[in-house]
Amino acid sequence: MKTEDFELLSDMIRDRSGLVLSKDKVYLLESRLTPLARQRGLESLDDLVKELRTRRDEKLMHDVTEAMTTNESFFFRDNTPFNLFRDTVLPELLKSNAATRKIRIWCAAASTGQEPYSLAMILSEAKAALRDWRVEILATDLSQQVLEKAKAGVYSQFEVQRGLPIQMLVKYFKEEGEMWRIDAALRAMVQFRTFNLLDDFRSLGQFDVIYCRNVLIYFDQKTKGEVLDRMSSVLSSQGSLFLGAAETVLGICDRLKPVPGHRGLYRPSEPPARQAASA
What three-state secondary structure class fits 267? Predict the structure, then answer.
C-alpha cells in the first residue's frame, strides 16, 4: 500500500473513531477493507481509496470506519471485572443508592453484547436484593452492525462456550438449531444505542458504573485523556469505572484514581478543595 493511501485511511479512521493505526497495521487495513471494496463492486483496495479521494461518500467512510473497529468480545471476559461487580460494587450500590433504589450502568464498547448480557445475568441472580429497584444497562458501540447482533441475542455454539458457565447457559439461553438465543427478560434489561466515544457524553445522563474495557489501548494519549475526562463527568461521585487490564488512568486523567487492591477498577478523585481541607 502506498504511504499516501495509508495516511489517508488512517487519518480518516482516527478522526472518525479515535482508533490509531501504526504503519505496521497495513495488513489489518488490507484484510478488513479488501472485502469491503469487493462488496462495492471494486476490483481492489486501491480503487476504494480512489473513491474516497474523488468524492465525499459519507456511507463509504462510515463503512470503512465500521470495518476497522475491533469487535472481539465474549461472556464474562477476564472474570475479575465481573466478580468485582458482583462481590464489591453491587453490594456497595445497594447501600449507597437505597434512597433512590436506582442503578445505571453503561457498557461503552458493547460490541456484540456479551459484556452487558453478562452483567444482566449477574443482576438477575441478585433479583431478590433488587426487588423494586430500577436497574438500567445502556450498551453503546460505534458499529450499528454489531449492535444489531447484540439486540438479537443469538450466539453460536463457539460464542457461548467462550467464558459462559454451563449453568448460566442452561438457565438463560434457549437452543435454536445450531444457535443459542438469550432469554427475552435479559434482552429487555439492556438498551442498545449507537454512540461514538469522541462525542459529547452529557446526553447519556449519569451512571453508577461504567465499563470501558480494552478500548483506550487503541487511542492516542490525548484522546485517552479526553475520553476519561468525559467519563468522569458522567460518573456519580461514588461511581465505578472498569478499564481493561492493560489500561490505566495514571498520568492521563487526574479526575479518576485506581482503587487499591482491585485491578482495573477506578473511582472519582476527591476535588482539590476537599483534599486540602482534609489534609
Answer: strand
Contact 110, 195 (CB under 8 A): no
Query: Nine-digit cell at 58?
Result: 459519507
Structure confidence by residue, pLDDT tens digits, 155-165: 999 999 988 99
Spatial neighbors of 88 by CB under 8 A, at least 6 apart, are 262
User: For the chain, first and last CA: distance in Å?
Assistant: 58
What lies within 8 Å, CB to CB, of 25 at 6+ separation is none
Distance CA 20, CA 22 (A): 7
Give pLDDT tens digits for 109-155: 999 999 999 999 999 999 999 999 999 999 999 988 899 999 999 99
Question: What pTM did the predictor assign?
Answer: 0.85
Say what angle helices 3-17 and 26-39 make with each other, to 10 degrees. 80
Q: Strand order of the sheet with strand 207-212?
A: 190-194, 134-141, 102-107, 207-212, 235-243, 265-268, 256-258
> Which secondary-structure segment (H or E) carries 266?
strand 265-268
Positions in the chain whose pLDDT score sits under 50: 272-279
Domains and CATH numbers, the chain: 3-68 (1.10.155), 80-273 (3.40.50.150)
Q: Is 104 helix (H, G, I), strand (E, B) or coil?
A: strand
Task: List, in order, residues 6 or more apart from 213 with CB less than 8 Å away.
Answer: 77, 78, 81, 109, 115, 242, 243, 244, 247, 264
Q: Which residues pair with 17 in a beta bridge?
A: none
Report which DSSP code applies to 56. -
